[in-house]
Every structure is written in C-alpha cells, then in structure tokens.
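Action item from last week, closing it out:
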Amino acid sequence: MFCLVSLQELLSTLFLSPTPSPPRNNGIRIHIETPLHGNPPCYRPINNLINIRDDTGEFLVHLKNGQTIQAKCWNGWEWTHGVGLYGIWKIYEMTGKELYLKIIEDWFAERFMEGGTSKNINTMAPFLTLAYVYERTRNQTYLPWLDAWAEWAMYDLPRTNYGGMQHITYVDENEQELWDDTLMMTVMPLAKIGKLLGRDDWCTMVIPEILELLELDVNDPVRCHLCETLEAQYSYLEASATAGFAYGILKAVRRRYIGAEYRDVGLRAVQSVLRDVDEQGELRNTSYGTPMGHDLQFYKDIPITSMPYGQAMAIMALAEYLRTYL
C-alpha cells in the first residue's frame, strides 16, 4: 500500500480549523486552537456542513401545495440531511467526541420541535442515524418517532405492482419506479430499526430488497448496461461521487468483502477528494443532486454547489482513510 499523504497532512485537512469565522445562518461555528489536546478536534468539513447557506433561495424547492423544501441548508429535512447526519455519526463513532453527538441530537431536537415533515423515501433517511443514536443513548423521546416511521415504511409506503418500494419523494410519486437510492434512504433505516427494536418482520422485509438490488450476474444485461454507461465520460467531474467510491472501496477492503488489490484504487480516490477540500472545509465540485432526468443534458446542467450530502461523503471517505493508519 502506498501512502498518498503524511498522517500530519491528513490531520491538518481533517482537524485543523482556519482562522475563526463569524457565525453563519444557525450560529454554529467551531474553532479549536489545539485540536489534538484537551478540546475535541474541529472537523473542518463538519464546520462547513452545518453552516451551508442559501441566501438567495436559489435552491429552494417550491411544491404545488405551497410547501417550501430546503435541501441545501442544515435546517432542512431531506435525504441530503440524512446522509449528512450519518457522516457526522461515523466521525462520532471513531472519536467518541460528544461535540459531534450533540450536533446530531440538536438537529433532531429542532426538527421535532418544528413538528417533523411529510413521509417519503428521502425523508426517511435521517432515521438511520437516529436509530444509532437511540441505541447509544436510549433517549426514550426518539422511540415513538422510530416506531411510527418504520411502521409507515413497512405498511403504508406506496408499492409497485410487484411489492417493491416505490421511490416517492416531495416532488414526484415516481409511480411504479424502483430506485437504487431507496437502499440508502429507506431500506437501511428500516433494517436498522427492525434489528434494534426486535421487529423481525421489518428485517425480513428488507432482505429481499437488498438482494434484489445487488444480485447481478456478470452477463446480466442491466449490469452490462451500467458498465457501458460508466464508460461514457461526457459529464463534468463530480467530487461527492468520488468520495462515495473512496469510502465504499476502502471499507469493503477493510471488511474483506473485496480483495486487498482494490486498496490502491480507493486510495487514489481519496487523493482526489483531498484536492477538492478547500481551506474552509468545503468539498468543491459537488452537484446539487441527481433526480431522474429525461435526457443526458439534464444531468450535465445540474448546478455545482456545496451540499450536506457532499460534505458527509467527504467526511466518511476521509474517516475511513484514517483507519489505514490504525
């Protein structure tokens, strides 16, 4: 295994804050002078994540029912926040620093005080992290939320004709459509909650969902199509995807799901991620998100902007990379 950067350089990227910045939208701005001694370390990408702003309202989604959805800023409730919370949780697992747990708990407390949100595939995503937090803290106020949302996913979530989870979102019901995204957004939370609360029916339900998404033979036409699609290099370079590949490959190697010969591939992806993290901890070159488009140009036109899910994927990739030093 080759070393892409020194441990000191990596820690500088992850844990050292730039000069103190004034508070932004929700007033959270963390600055630690001595990150490795005494106080918990300041994770620059987390700083950026919880302070992402949309001052112009450019990225607000206005629904027909008058509801306004905030997918970009930290005080919204969408799949972007679900992935963001999970990234912070992974750092808390590694460091044990209560600061990171408090960021998560504060997010849920504020959203619950607002009355929650409407249920769909994407808004289920934060409950994966909430299940882990409940497992750690046993905060009983979380239990009704976990139970109610898991019951919805099990029994009331719209299904396709063959029983699959229809990828219903704020914007579109996506009738009869199955999306791979559902695995992260709803299947994993449901499986974790089912295991945590001893609900075998919830766990049993998600097993075929996962297998259906992953069981592709080498000559399967869908697999061949996906491989051919990956060879079409016509879109802009996108950093959160690279971070996702880095995390998935390095974790799969560590857990021995794939061979050690893939480690260098993951390390090269990490090197690219590090180049895209700026001095403020922002993962640059992150797309706003990729809903279903009707042509290739749709994806090329998606704007580049800082997003919670992008920050989280960088956090997860770099944290997984830190494990190579242990």
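Closing note: The two ends are 14 Å apart (CA to CA).
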